[in-house]
Known about the structure:
It comes from Melia azedarach (Chinaberry tree). This is 4-hydroxy-4-methyl-2-oxoglutarate aldolase. Strands 1, 2, 3, 4, 5, 6, 7, 8, 11 and 12 form a 10-stranded mixed β-sheet that branches. A two-stranded antiparallel sheet has the order 9-10. The chain is built from 5 helices and 12 strands. A hairpin with a 2-residue loop joins strand 9 (137-139) and strand 10 (142-144). It is α/β, with parallel strands linked by helices. Oxaloacetate ion binds at residues 51, 81-84, 103-104, 124-125.
Amino acid sequence: MALVATAEACDSNASLLASGDLRVLQPIFQIYGQCRSFSGPIVTLKVFEDNVLVRELLNSRGDGKVLVIDGGGSMRCALLGGNLGQLAHNNGWSGIVVDGCIRDVDEINGCGIGVRALGSHPLKSNKKGHGEKHVPVYIGGTFIQDGEWLYADSDGIIVSKSELSI
Ligand SMILES: O=C([O-])CC(=O)C(=O)O
């Protein structure tokens, strides 16, 4: 599958940018994982310092989708580690964007998916199972809905209401 380059997508979709159907996330995310470029339909998840639902979703078939986790920007624990990264890859997820932290960075960097997160933190999260799947989230200064499309590459991350063509 040919990849949509984020800079080119912004250059050639001025009207979508103007209408808000195409949005650019603030450049606050670090790049992890083997795939610097990835894209796919979005599955949203809102949690706070608790990753039980992260595991639940990554344990299901990804079918090329991207998991977008609104973790409230917490810098106090990790929502994703090496085991979950491998699980995501095994189940066919194309990438994970975390508004929060990850851990086991060396293992995640060996996984064949793309990962973006604010940073790394060695502490694991709570395991209570609190959170909401498939709800609208707000990360990187942008509202994101379940089912929208995400494109990430070395230049940044963009979200589109519908699939972009090259
Ligand atoms: O289970 C966790 O909290 C995350 C983790 O360390 C892993 O995925 O390896």
